[in-house]
Amino acid sequence: MDSAEPGDPSPRGRRGLPEIHSVLRATATAAAGGTLVIWWPAFTLGAYNDIFFDDVLALWAVATAVLLSGLVLHRRIAVPRSSVIALLLPSIWIVLGMAAPRSKGFHYLHYLEVVITILSAPYLTWLLSKILLPDYHELPSAQRFGAVGITAVMGILAFLLGQFNYLFLTCADFDVSGNNTPPGCAQGPPFRLR
Q1: Which ranges constitute the DSSP H helices of the chain?
Q2: How high is the pLDDT of residue 101?
Q3: Rounded CA separation 59/90 (Å)
Q4: Neighbouring-strand partners of residue 108
Q5: Other beta carbons less than 10 A from residue 123's beta carbon
Q6: Which pLDDT band holds residue 47 (cuts at 50, 70, 90)?
Q7: What CA–CA distance (Å, rounded) separates 64 from 62?
Q8: Is the CB of residue 97 less than 8 Å from the CB of residue 89?
Q9: Can you tell me where the transmembrane regions are (predicted)?
Q10: Minimal CB count within 10 Å: which of 30, 39, 76, 99?
Q11: Does residue 76 have a pLDDT over 70?
Q12: How many CB atoms lie within 10 A of CB 154?
């Protein structure tokens, strides 16, 4: 098949589209995946001073799926002990939540939840990228850590957007989206209607 023919999937056959370097592709994919994990929990921590349970459960689901994948293949592929421990942290939080007395208000669980969510996201970015991206292990260490760093920066930016949500969102924006209004949100119509 000639590379100029339509239907050629090679980069040479795509007119007007430059080839994307594999380092950029792997780094950007890892950073984007990590950002998807961390942005909403970080935003809600900034806006509501809380991380919602569904964010923690989403993190638990991803961590547990990766852990179970490693356990299913344990005879052929060994999961490092440090990875197993890190992947178990969200499950430990759930078990502690079930075991803690409900009437006493154990506030330490909230702090554990925040730490697990915020610290686990960059680690999960690294671990999932290592597992899911075939080119990831070939990246120079600066790019691998760069993707994790980008995830952390995106978490910080999302937290700041949550803190200063009143500058670009209104209480009505939260209402329309089905979320509770955070303290200090700006009054007015939804931002998109201004």
Answers
A1: 22-48, 53-72, 81-99, 108-132, 141-163, 171-176
A2: 63
A3: 7
A4: none
A5: 18
A6: very high
A7: 5
A8: no
A9: 22-40, 52-72, 84-102, 108-133, 145-169
A10: 76
A11: no
A12: 22
pLDDT at 39 over 80: yes
Contact 122, 30 (CB under 8 A): no
Under DSSP, the state recorded for 139 is S
| Structure token pair of residue 153 | 């920066």
The widest CA-to-CA distance across the chain, in whole angstroms, is 72
Q: Which residue has the tokens 């329309």?
A: 176
Among all chains, which residue has been given the structure tokens 């996201």? 121
CB neighbours of 182 closer than 8 A, spacing ≥ 6? Answer: 47, 48, 162, 165, 174
Q: What is the mean pLDDT of residues 85-114?
A: 71
The token pair at 120 is: 């686990």
Written as six digits, the tokens of 126 are 């690294």
Q: Note the pTM of the prediction, 2 decimals.
A: 0.72
Whether 170 shows a pLDDT value over 90: the answer reads yes
Return the amino acid letter for 143: Q
Among 21, 33, 26, which Cα is nearest to 141's?
Answer: 26
**Alpha-carbon gap, residue 123 to 140, rounded angstroms:** 17
Measure the CA–CA gap between 86 and 107, rounded to whole angstroms. 22
Model confidence at 161: pLDDT above 90: yes
Q: How many CB atoms lie within 10 A of CB 12?
A: 10
* Domain range list for the chain: 20-163, 166-194
